[in-house]
Amino acid sequence: MSQPLLSVRNLSVAFGRSKVVEDISFDLGAGEILGVVGESGSGKSITALSILRLVPAPGRVSGAISFAGADLMALPEPEMRAIRGRDIAMIFQEPMTSLNPVFTCGDQVMEALIHHRGLDRTGARAEALKLLKLVEIPSAERRLDDYPHQLSGGMRQRVMIAMALACRPKLLLADEPTTALDATIQAQILDLLRGLQRELGMAVVLITHDLGVVAEVAHRVLVMYAGKVVETAPSDAIFARPFHPYTEGLLASIPRLEGPISRLDAIPGQVPPPDAMPAGCRFAPRCRYAAEPCRAAPPPLAPRGPDRAAACIRTPA
């Protein structure tokens, strides 16, 4: 990879004595899609909020985050506000709670256009209409003046995407953009995001718990568990041969269309809370391969071939 657009090094986020994200590092190139996967509680959303410096108090963020050559951790807040929405945009998890219920959808799309691009209301409204059409909202002229509660879940998600794309950002953070949508609408949203990413040349961090979603759109995959990266690899490589037992378990839980019908595999147990992490590998209490060395010390994220790494002492067959 040439000079990365986004570089994250040793990122950690703590609330009190509990670290919810610990020692995360990755690079993202211009025009690349990185899938970040893991169960709820693995630290995916907090990682994205850290990039935008939106971690709520009393959270403490440490490490280094560089975007287009700028040190985001050192920027004064006014400069950081200028980057949010203009150069880095985010699609939040739940559009019904992320959209303001007392403003029309058009007003909410126009806000970024007026603030970041300096358009007047007439120009911003015309551009907002183009954006709603770009994200394929039917009857876009009428929907400009609708409130969020008047739209379906799929259309609210499209409004969120229009807001995020309003300033043609270089980086889009998409946090579970298809959560709570049915399979047909989910496929439409993914196709839309993929098409817009190609058209605009954006880099995308796609946060999800669904490896099926990642398989469709991501170039590379970052697997997180209990606040740490446990595996990273190109998308095709990780699906062909996962190295970490957690990744293996996630893949085994995906329903298969081919072959005989059988009961889905499940990973026993649950993600440990931040204040009760195991001393060794955090996945060891749920891992069928765990041995005494796994419980003694956390394994490092070690190289496992070209452009991939895994935090596991086991070598799969």
What does this entry look like structurally?
The chain is an alpha/beta fold. It has two domains: about 220 residues, Rossmann fold (3-Layer(aba) Sandwich), CATH 3.40.50.300; about 70 residues, no CATH class. About 35% of the residues lie in helices and about 20% in strands. It contains twelve helices and twelve strands. The strands form two sheets. Strands 6-7-8-3-9-10-12-11 form an eight-stranded mixed beta sheet, with helices on both faces. Strands 2-1-4-5 form a four-stranded antiparallel beta sheet, with helices on one face. Strand 7, helix 8 and strand 8 form a beta-alpha-beta unit. The chain is globular, with a radius of gyration of 20 Å. The protein starts with 5 loop residues before the first strand and ends in a 7-residue tail after the last strand. The relative contact order is 0.14. The model has no long low-confidence stretch (mean pLDDT about 90).
SSE topology sketch:
Blueprint: E1 6-15, E2 18-28, E3 33-37, H1 44-51, E4 60-67, E5 70-71, H2 77-83, E6 88-91, H3 95-98, H4 105-117, H5 121-134, H6 140-143, H7 153-165, E7 171-175, H8 183-200, E8 203-208, H9 211-217, E9 220-225, E10 228-234, H10 235-240, H11 245-252, H12 292-296, E11 302-303, E12 309-310
Parallel strand pairs: 3-8, 3-9, 6-7, 7-8
Antiparallel strand pairs: 1-2, 1-4, 4-5, 9-10, 10-12, 11-12
Q: Which runs of at least 5 residues are low in confidence (pLDDT < 50)? A: none
How would you spell out the order of helices and strands? Answer: EEEHEEHEHHHHHEHEHEEHHHEE
**What strand line-up does the widest sheet have?**
6-7-8-3-9-10-12-11
Helix content: 25-40%
Largest sheet: 8 strands, mixed
How large, in whole angstroms, is the Cα Rg? 20 Å
Within CATH, the superfamily of the largest domain carries the name P-loop containing nucleotide triphosphate hydrolases
- Tell me the CATH topology of the largest domain: Rossmann fold
Number of domains: 2
* CATH architecture classification name of the largest domain: 3-Layer(aba) Sandwich
Count of individual helical segments: 12
